[in-house]
Amino acid sequence: MTVVEAADGLPIPNRDDLVAPDRPALIGPLDTIRIEVFNYPEFTRDVQVDASGRIALPFLGTVEAGGKTAGELAMDVERALDARYVRDPEVTVNIVNSVSQVVTVSGEVETPGLYP
Fold this sequence. Notes:
Elements: E1 32-37, E2 45-48, E3 54-57, E4 61-64, H1 70-84, E5 91-97, E6 103-105, E7 113-115
Antiparallel strand pairs: 1-2, 1-5, 3-4, 6-7
């Protein structure tokens, strides 16, 4: 607990004190993600991240997804496809359902529960 004896030396709060910077959404265990490869529907699919943070993709095998942003995973999949199957692939990754990033609201509230 912080106790401030005199408030004379403290700066006046401004709007920036009330706004937190954006944090990137990270892919975590049991999240469902959609991987789309432009013009290659055979590579496009929804997959669930396993408990260890990995996904299994046809032709590519196991890919580490946990702790990465959607953009980072898209780049990894692009590199893997480019190395073997597709020339200059354009990959998009979206988090469809996030189970790993939830907040628990409890106590004297109207609707306690888990919220994304």
